[in-house]
Design a protein that fits this description.
Elements lengths: L17 H7 L12 H7 L8 H6 L7 E4 L3 E5 L7 E7 L16 H17 L6 E4 L15 E5 L9
Antiparallel strand pairs: 1-2, 2-3, 3-5, 4-5
Organism: Arundo donax
InterPro entries: Histidine_triad_HIT, HIT-like, HIT-like_sf
Pfam families: HIT
Length: about 160
């Protein structure tokens, strides 16, 4: 387990921060001329191959890592939707491009992702509460097809969520 508070998030690109980074490392090619996450999700191709998250795991793309162990990597989202917005990903994808592709053999990693979210939330001081989000597919606004959890905190969440 480690916390890397000295690392800086990658600088946003001129064409839209996270969306441009995602597009530049996806099968879509160059930077995306999109305005939001919904557009990124609509443009994303559901792939089972390597994603930008695989490059982050291999440290080929810089990220602000807040937690890492043998099974998961957690890093600050470069387009935060809350004062604390952390992405938690399994280091081994094992076919889990999205939650709807989960099989019984994935039960342990799914549970561990939630446990890791609890650890990160405590580490980040989110004692008053937090939200966990898993986007699945185009209508679920998934833009990177590598199962991941969004941990959101330090603001009052609303209901219904979206």
């Amino acid at each position: 387990m480690s916390r890397n508070s000295g690392a800086q998030p990658p600088p946003p690109t001129a064409s839209g921060g996270r969306l441009a980074v995602i597009a530049s490392h996806s099968s879509l090619g160059g930077p995306a001329p999109m305005a939001g996450e919904k557009e990124a999700a609509l443009a994303a191709e559901p792939i089972d191959g390597p994603t930008i998250f695989d490059k982050i795991i291999r440290k080929e793309i810089p990220s602000q890592v807040v937690y890492e162990d043998q099974k998961v990597l957690a890093f600050s989202d470069i387009s935060p939707q809350a004062p604390v917005h952390i992405i938690i990903i399994p280091k081994v994808k094992d076919g889990l491009s999205r939650l709807s592709k989960a099989e019984e053999r994935h039960v342990e990693v799914l549970g561990y992702l939630l446990y890791a979210a609890k650890i990160v939330a405590k580490q980040e001081g989110l004692d008053d509460g937090f939200r966990i989000v898993i986007n699945d597919g185009t209508k679920g606004c998934e833009s990177v097809y590598h199962l991941h959890i969004h941990l959101l905190g330090e603001r009052q969440m609303n209901w219904p969520p979206g």
